[in-house]
Target: fructose-bisphosphate aldolase
Amino acid sequence: MLRKVVLAGLAATAVDAFTAPTGFFGTRQAPAAKINSVKPVSARTQRVNGAASLRAAEATKNKLPASVKPGVVTGQALVDLLKYAKENNFAIPGVNIVGSNSINACMEAAAKYGGPIMVTFSKGGGQFIAGKSLPNKNDEASIAGCIAGALHVRAVAKQYGIPVVLHTDHCQKAWLPWIDGLMAANEDYYKTHGEPLFSSHMLDLSEEPLEENVEICKKYLERMAKCNVLLEMELGVTGGEEDGVDNTGVDSARLYTQPEEVWYTYQELSKVPNGHFTIAASFGNVHGVYAPGNVDLKPVILHNTQKYISEKLGGKDKKPVNFVFHGGSGSSLEDIRYAIEAGVIKMNIDTDTQWAFWDGVRGYEAKYHDYLQGQIGNPEGATKPNKKYYDPRMMLRAGEEAMAKRLIQAAEDLNCVNVL
Model:
């Protein structure tokens, strides 16, 4: 019988194994120049441009697949895009959104940095889009809001001239009716348009036993494969709390996925005809904000897992697994880049973009504070109107601009600049 997920008592042993200086679980060589901090975008322009030029030269052998066009990318085009990302050593920002403003900020940023973007809907985000006043019985509001947001993206994505992946985030076992509703929408859309409404969905059944996690994911992948939807699934647990998923008290042993677990999952999901999937394998990831040093990321786990599975498959493909990176906020640039080298093709971004949007609104209020205290009267005169200052579009636009700027920085970190 397949061994179970590492027990708490083995946590220290498992973690030590991943950092042993020799053998299969050996560590990487120290980088030539240690990266101490992520500098502001303006201070990194020369480095980023140089890296982009190098990637452009490297990509001459592997140009953007012809199947990948501006607009929403699904099916084989999505598979081709993820393969292209892995071959060219970049990852796609996967951004949680809550409405048209954050959706538009995502696509504005992607158009500016010259790369793809993944617009990600959570169950709570979908409910917010539909309207918080609505009852959410049977996840009806969450389903309706996600569909509405997806249709908005489809209506405007081509105008931005970039590939967009429509994705949904963590879905635990109790929330599967939400995904059932979205899959029904995918199937209806497929009948009319020959492609699904969404590009991909994530199932996070990491709280369940490994065999049950994989069994349910396999069942859903069989359904998804029939209308060309890609599955993202999670192994291990991402710590912290995000949008109703609270893993703050989880056993630390579950933050580190074992190669055998990934291999078992890869084997089972690969049995599904036309099934395509990515794996969020935990390597110490934690959602939310944390101070440097409080989280012990070990992307070497991903490298070792790729080596393990590659050898099982005969060694021809050195990076057979498409990994995704959850809980990336606050991670060092060194860890992010090393994870990408291990086959990470997408990193989730939420905490930092939430702050950026608010910071943009906050900055707008601070700049025009004296014009926002009443409808009439400001420093220019007691009878001067303030409508153009308190127009909601003004403050929301400030939030969009700040969020887009932060996403451009994220794209730089992920090597996702000028990759189209």
Notes: The two ends are 46 Å apart (CA to CA). Residues 371 and 378 are 5 Å apart (CA to CA). Residues 1-50, 52-61, 244-251, 289-293 have pLDDT under 50 and may be disordered. The chain has one domain: 67-413.
